[in-house]
């Protein structure tokens, strides 16, 4: 089967990692339960930053957020390794900017994610991502972002699964909480 994954906040715990970086850089101590209650993808409101300040903070921290020690979610690497071992085609589709694409690919490899060069795609805006996923006819696609899931869901042949996050709890798709539970969503033996 063709199985696609978003990266940030689907396979790796990027926002929570960024939340810690913000606390350090801003010399704050905003507790993690504030993070777990956020109702949008952006995290700056927890630090009382405006939209503009938030964008600036994100962009100035990007190098550290993307390419340092952001942890994959538990069992994400092992789960995808196992899917690949069983012969599934694994696709990664991220909206990370083009300029960071190749380094992201290398960084993901160093984390242990199995990646075939031609199945790694980056630099797509939400709408492009949706069109692309429809075009390559994935059997399954996993993402955290409401805008992407809502537009994709129910169209074409791709079954979409939402990676549980505080800002997507109102979405009515199959929902994965832990990567070790992937077999509850797809029959991974089937090719
Ligand atoms: Mg994401």
UniProtKB/TrEMBL annotation:
One of its GO terms (molecular function) is 5'-nucleotidase activity. Its EC number is 3.1.3.-. One of its GO terms (biological process) is deoxyribonucleotide catabolic process. The keyword Transcription does not apply. Transmembrane segments: none annotated. The keyword Hydrolase applies. It holds the Pfam family NT5C. InterPro entries: 5'(3')-deoxyribonucleotidase, 5_3-deoxyribonucleotidase-like, HAD-like_sf, HAD_sf, Nucleotidase_putative. The active site is at residues 6, 8. Keywords: Hydrolase. Belongs to the 5'(3')-deoxyribonucleotidase family. This is Nucleotidase. It comes from Planococcus citreus.
